[in-house]
């Protein structure tokens, strides 16, 4: 089993143990590309790599539908400010996404305090949260140490 398939399986079991998600060849291919990329990747970059990998032309709606499925499954996050996608290597819900301005790496971190605060504020405002992800831009540890050198 590939690392991407293991990631998907963990997310599937944690999401709905009685209704596991299906990892089709297309989903597997896209998840492999996103996982291997190690930085946020745009849908059209995925499209180009997937078409080459599959040996046939893949159309944008197919890639977007699959990315939507993988996002709903919790193994991929869409980075709104970059219009790109990144694999999330833990199965817990991610509240914060730290994105490096230099290398483009992204790390997801769950934060129950932020989730609780958002839920409380939303409830006070009469708002039902459907999706939240705080995107934080800066420099990762590696890029900071290279800049200091």
From TrEMBL:
The yes or no answer to whether the keyword Transcription is present is: yes
The cofactor named in the record is: Zn(2+)
Pfam families linked to this entry: FUR
Q: Which residues form the signal peptide?
A: none
UniProt: Zn(2+) binding residues: 100, 103, 140, 143
The similarity annotation says: Belongs to the Fur family.
**Name used for this protein in its record:** Fur family transcriptional regulator
């Amino acid at each position: 089993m590939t690392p991407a398939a293991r990631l998907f399986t963990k997310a599937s079991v944690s999401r709905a143990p009685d209704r596991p998600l299906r990892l089709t060849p297309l989903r597997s291919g896209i998840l492999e590309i996103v996982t291997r990329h190690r930085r946020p990747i745009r849908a059209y970059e995925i499209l180009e790599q997937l078409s080459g990998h599959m040996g046939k032309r893949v159309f944008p709606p197919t890639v977007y539908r699959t990315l939507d499925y993988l996002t709903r499954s919790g193994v991929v996050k869409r980075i709104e400010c970059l219009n790109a996608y990144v694999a999330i290597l833990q199965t817990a819900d991610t509240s914060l996404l730290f994105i490096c301005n230099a290398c483009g790496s992204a790390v997801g971190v769950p934060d129950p305090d932020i989730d609780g605060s958002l839920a409380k504020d939303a409830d006070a405002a009469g708002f039902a949260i459907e999706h939240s992800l705080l995107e934080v831009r800066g420099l990762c540890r590696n890029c900071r140490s290279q800049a200091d050198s």
